[in-house]
Write a structure and sequence with these properties.
Structural class of chain B: alpha+beta
Structural class of chain A: alpha+beta
Radius of gyration of chain A: 23 Å
Distance between the termini of chain A: 40 Å
Helix content of chain A: 10-25%
Low-confidence stretches of chain A: none
Low-confidence stretches of chain B: none
Number of helices of chain A: 2
Number of domains of chain A: 2
Distance between the termini of chain B: 24 Å
Oligomer: heterodimer
Radius of gyration of chain B: 19 Å
Strand content of chain A: 25-35%
Mean pLDDT of chain A: 93
Number of strands of chain B: 14
Helix content of chain B: 10-25%
Number of domains of chain B: 2
Order of helices and strands of chain B: EEEEEEEEEEEEEEHH
Shape of chain A: elongated
Number of strands of chain A: 13
Largest interface: A-B, 54 and 54 residues
Largest sheet of chain B: 6 strands, antiparallel
Order of helices and strands of chain A: EEEEEEEEEEEEEHH
Largest sheet of chain A: 5 strands, antiparallel
Mean pLDDT of chain B: 94
CATH class of the largest domain in chain A: Mainly Beta
């Protein structure tokens, strides 16, 4: 299993009295998220988090294929590789990222809480994919312009979603090789590269056998 | 070479036997032999002459609302709203386990709950559409044991007050079973680094026939 499809789902849900949690719990409730603050889905201190920053080891390669967030409270989601934001304004200034209205999670969700007026569908496709090379740190940052829990009577639940493929071990080496060759990294192309290696080995074996049969001359 | 599906319902489709929500919330429930809902007679495993390719998994979706909803009877787009939680539906996840290894991991390499129902909903509808497709597929090699595990966290997001009701929590698995010679070919394709699907198995058979002609 050296090439695996993975997802990460984040929501601003945590047990009462805390802003974040390492494990989802049965008694999670919504926590407030301030407006205009970039919240790291992995270690941002809000909602469900993981134990350490998301990073690739020397033998891992990650291809991020989709990001999405709730199409409410004017939310947006950004990818940061090491210290570089992926999505930029045309004037190369910082932006919040892909709006939830363009890449909604769940797909088909309403843009207004509690109403069933609309089904927001995706207007954005993360293509080409985003590569996280071995040894790099990456963040998925959620920002809401409106904030959650700004009203005293209710707190909105927001969620974000990231789909990526994790290449590990030999497949990560092949992914690096494909990157050098300028070939898109996806499971099909990794398989193609493996096949071409096998074919080369078979061809060289046949050539060696032929040479041996001819007394050392090819 | 046969396309197969398995559907699981936590209430066993409303059977007379009841399954308590409280004792199963937060626990990983095997949809095959977990003792909840409809089960099969033994753990799912491949024999020496079988090869399974899991192509899709899905579970009941959930939706994200506001904490203001506090009545127990409220529903939203067919999902029960958990009072005060801001979540409609069971907040369910589905994981694949091969032997003792969980397939889906967090970025810190710790096994997680799996695919959220909001990302891979079952059933699919206009309101709840998939954000996830299981690609590359998951291979279960000959002799391996595999399982599909469902975890739910929102006990108030199901319509049954104390026991699961029909349709509260469902999961779905689509897989292809390769048996006999086709399983041998599947193994050969795996060695060659070729994706295992019915098209490639047929291609390998054709290439064998051409080589023999």
């Amino acid at each position: 299993m050296s090439m695996r499809s993975q997802v990460y789902e984040w929501a601003n849900l945590a047990p009462s009295g805390s802003n974040s949690t390492l494990r989802r719990n049965t008694n999670d409730i919504p926590v407030s998220v301030p407006a205009n603050r970039e919240v790291d889905l992995f270690i941002g201190g809000y909602g469900n988090n993981i134990t350490k920053p998301a990073e690739t080891t020397a033998t891992q390669f990650i291809v991020i294929e989709d990001i999405a967030c709730s199409p409410t409270v004017n939310g947006a989601v950004q990818i940061r590789i090491n210290t570089t934001d992926y999505f930029q304004n045309p004037d190369v200034t910082d932006m919040l990222g892909i709006p939830g209205l363009a890449s909604p999670y769940p797909r088909g969700a309403s843009s207004d809480y509690g109403t069933t007026d609309n089904n927001i569908l995706k207007a954005f496709d993360l293509y080409p994919d985003v590569y996280v090379l071995p040894g790099q740190t990456f963040q998925i940052l959620y920002t809401t312009r409106d904030g959650c829990g700004t009203s005293s009577s209710t707190t909105e639940v927001v969620a974000a979603f990231c789909k990526y493929t994790l290449y590990d071990g030999p497949d990560a080496l092949i992914a690096n090789k494909l990157l050098e060759l300028g070939v898109t990294i996806n499971p099909n192309n990794v398989d193609w590269y493996k096949r071409s290696l096998i074919e080369q080995q078979q061809a060289s074996r046949v050539a060696a056998a032929t040479a041996a049969a001819n007394g050392g001359t090819a | 070479m046969r396309s197969q599906v398995y559907e699981w319902d936590a209430s066993n489709y409303g059977s007379a036997t009841t399954y308590a929500v409280a004792s199963n919330i937060g626990a990983k429930i095997s949809i095959f032999v977990g003792g909840v809902g409809n089960n099969i007679t033994k753990p799912a495993e491949t024999s020496a002459t079988e090869f399974v390719v899991i192509e899709d998994i899905a579970v009941t979706p959930s939706d994200f609302l506001q904490s203001v909803y506090a009545t127990t009877s409220a529903t939203y787009r067919g999902l029960t709203i958990g009072p005060g939680t801001g979540v409609a539906g069971p907040r369910a996840y589905v994981q694949v386990r091969i032997n003792t290894t969980d397939y889906f991991l967090d970025p810190d390499n710790v096994p997680n709950d799996g695919i959220p129902g909001s990302g891979s909903p079952y059933p699919r509808s206009v309101n709840y559409q998939p954000s996830f497709n299981l690609y590359p597929d998951v291979y279960v090699l000959p002799g391996q044991v595999w399982d599909v595990l469902v975890t739910m966290y929102n006990d108030t997001g199901v319509s049954g007050a104390s026991n699961f009701a029909d349709g509260d929590l469902r999961a779905f698995v689509k897989y292809t079973l390769y048996d006999g010679p086709d399983a041998l070919i599947a193994n050969k394709l795996l060695e060659m680094g070729i994706s295992i699907n019915p098209g490639n198995v047929d291609w390998y058979k054709r290439s064998l026939l051409q080589a023999g002609a």
